[in-house]
UniProtKB/TrEMBL annotation:
Family, per entry: Belongs to the cytochrome P450 family.
Superkingdom: Eukaryota
Binding of heme, residues: 431
Keywords: Heme, Iron, Membrane, Metal-binding, Monooxygenase, Oxidoreductase, Transmembrane, Transmembrane helix
Cited Gene3D superfamilies: Cytochrome P450
Matching PROSITE patterns: CYTOCHROME_P450 (PS00086)
UniProt-recorded name of the protein: Cytochrome P450
InterPro entries, per database record: Cyt_P450, Cyt_P450_CS, Cyt_P450_E_grp-I, Cyt_P450_sf
UniProt keyword Cell membrane, yes or no: no
Cofactor(s) the protein needs: heme
Amino acid sequence: MAASFLAPLNQTNPSLIAASIAIISATIFYFWAVKRSNKKLAPLPPGPLGLPILGYIPFLNGAPIHRKFAELSAKYGPIFKIWVGSQLYVVVSSPALAKQVLRDNESVFSSRELPLVGRICTYGGLDLACLPMGPDWNSMRKVLVREALSSPGLDGCYELRRREVVKALNEVEVGKPVGVFELAHKVVGNATLGMLWGGGGGGGVVGGDYGETREVGQRIMELMAKPNVSDLFPMLARFDLQGIGREAAELAERFDRIVSAMIRKRLDGGGEKKGGEIDKVDLLQVLLERRGSSGAGSPLTSMAHFKAMLQDVAVGGNENIASTIEWAMSELLKSDRAMKSVQQELDEIVGPDSLVEDHHLKDLKYLDAVIKETCRLYLALMNRTASRACTVGGYTVPQGSKVFVNSWAIHRDPHSSSFRYVPFGSGRRICAGVSLAERLLKYVLGSLLHRFEWRLADGEEGGVDLSDDFTLFIKKKRPLVAVPASRLPAGLELLAY
Ligand code: HEM
């Protein structure tokens, strides 16, 4: 007998059960598939049309890139896309979307692709900034950030950076106009190199051969900032149409010669001791000892990884710190009130009879606020790469896109959020040198303002020009030139050194 259509409910009918299961499963599958396909269908972010092949390249001229991105964001919203050659750029400009990229989807956006110059100059991409997140990155970061550049690590090599700062400032000619960026770059660069390999036995004498290392580092940064056809169209990279790859290889070789000599001297039992050398343990010594005790499989046992890590310290932040100091000085020269407040604080905390020392830094609250405000106003972009497709702000960010977080725009966003201040980035890939950068910013700027009275050089009567440009960071379009006058009793600086 055919099964009754109206079979009593309490009667178990196997074919009905099977049919019900099939229908329910199909329904569940249908909704899952719709949801999944909807996910797939999340659109790409909006953005301007570009030209075939070139994409938006021809329209990127004119305003510096952080401003151009902010303009496009005003038109297309807090997330937009542009094609730059064959590369898709996605730019986010709000704290909420920065959080989605840097925190909520950290595993997707945890790597970054450096330009070709960056890879050539870091032993093929073996430094912390280039390495993908994984065991090698992890153990290198641990050694550098948690040990060498930790608070006790930085305390341990204070004498070495102090000596370089005092020496470089002793060389400033009172009454003579000086380019503030160049001066800051020299002071910061020498301080960094002093603590890196200027300790006893390193062959590092006061102000040693740091000039060449600084010059190589500066040129690497300039080259990295140059638009390179090889980055925009990787299939053309082997032709190196602008010769950028060749110059980068020469710079990489020069850096390698310097770093290899430093390591060799140290492994051979130290260099000749010269006048002014301080017998202190420097970072090279700390890192070499760490290398010696690291087990097989550690990236530190690879000399290329080791040198790439030293390069991160030697070159990593000098330009950025020097530029931030130049911006801070520009803002202070524009505001008598702020300049007086900083100097008053320095006089109260440090006094006219001593030099700024590391132990003063924690009490220099106004100076700290000046630096934080400068970082808010003048630190710009960071970029990560999408390791797989991901949804951000309701839009699909395809795998391989370069995602830029426009901190310059975010820092000006009046809507408060936990991601409104990210000058050093965020998450596990936050700047590895943040603690060093913060100390050097405060120590060098504090010393410049404590030791000298500054006025604009002649010819700058129009006042301080705050227009900006972008290289790898926001840079002053017109370099600040200022004239120092002494604020301290004569001879104090020499005694202190
Ligand atoms: C004012 C000074 C500096 C600024 C504004 C700055 C800014 C940044 C930013 C925004 C990032 C990317 C963070 C992210 O993706 O979330 C970064 C990464 C990095 N910075 Fe700095 N930095 C400065 C100084 C330094 C110094 C002094 C060093 C050297 C020790 C350094 C070494 C690095 C390294 C190695 C990375 C890559 C870290 C990783 O991917 O694990 N930086 N920095």
